[in-house]
């Protein structure tokens, strides 16, 4: 953010110097005293210089920080509104769990550091239930009740996955990750408004 402000100030200074140089060039080409419009041109040049300087300083000191924050948030992927942000995390987690299940089948963890990473991952996955709860608030009452049950089961399965992670039991851990992925899928199905008959 600081580097963005420095760049803006540098560009603003360059522009003011360019405007000033252009104004001086106009003045040297024709004698200001002999030119009827010289005073008006000088006033316009000063007005433009002062206005641009004021706008630039206002940007840097005031709204520039907000713009820089907004740009930073967009770049970080954090600018989605509530609801969409949580939904995005649920979809990403579903994809991540599927990848973990596939990697457990093809190349299971071999040392304790890999199991520590998986243990930390499931702790983060457990917090996904907060996002699911937030999204579930907007559901119809009957679906909301079903979502609460799905979230409860999801939390239980993820919490139980910590035991095989500590014991380094690949098959039991994989089984619980499959159940967790099923919970995420079931929750996402509750968000659909398409009738089952179609």
UniProtKB/TrEMBL annotation:
Database matches in Gene3D superfamilies: Oxygen-evolving enhancer protein 3 (PsbQ), four-helix up-down bundle
Signal peptide interval: 1-21
Domain of life: Eukaryota
InterPro entries per record: PsbQ-like_dom_sf
Keyword terms, alphabetized: Signal, Thylakoid
Protein name in UniProt: Uncharacterized protein
Species the sequence originates in: Triparma strigata
